[in-house]
Design brief:
With 134 residues, the chain is α/β, with parallel strands linked by helices. Helices cover 34% and strands 37% of the residues. The mean pLDDT is 85.
Length: 134
């Protein structure tokens, strides 16, 4: 009788552990999006994005937050892995930027992660450069 109880407890534990693993990998664990290969949800100018966030941040968040956006704008600041479009759109790249983009019109694609009130910037991450116009 004791062996039967132990077998039932072990079987129940195995089922519980299997269910937990299935739940974790099936529902909780999701692979990261590859923004570079995604089609953009919006193709707009940086000025339009800034205008939308300035006029109504809540509405802009409902439109753009966690969406893939393609932006065209003038690069006003650059570092190794960041460019700023139109002094207000902060674009974080996953890799080091090898091109010199300062003072050039550029098309950038990235995921909008919202408005940073502290720095007063709209933030995009996982950015890639699509085009550059002098």
């Amino acid at each position: 009788m004791k062996r039967k109880k132990i077998a039932i407890v072990v079987a129940a534990l195995l089922i519980a552990v299997s269910g937990g693993i299935y739940f974790y990998y099936g529902f909780l664990f999701k692979e990261a999006r590859n923004i570079e290969t995604e089609m953009p949800d919006f193709s707009i100018t940086a000025a339009k994005l800034i205008e939308d966030y300035s006029s109504n941040p809540e509405k802009a968040n409902s439109l753009y937050l966690n969406k893939t956006i393609e932006l065209k704008g003038l690069v006003t600041k650059e570092t190794d892995s960041v460019i700023v479009l139109e002094n207000s759109v902060f674009c974080l790249f996953t890799q080091k930027i090898t091109q010199k983009l300062l003072n050039n019109n550029t098309v950038v694609k990235g995921k909008c992660i919202g408005y940073d009130e502290l720095f007063q910037e709209i933030k995009l991450d996982q950015c890639t450069i699509n085009k550059q116009n002098n």
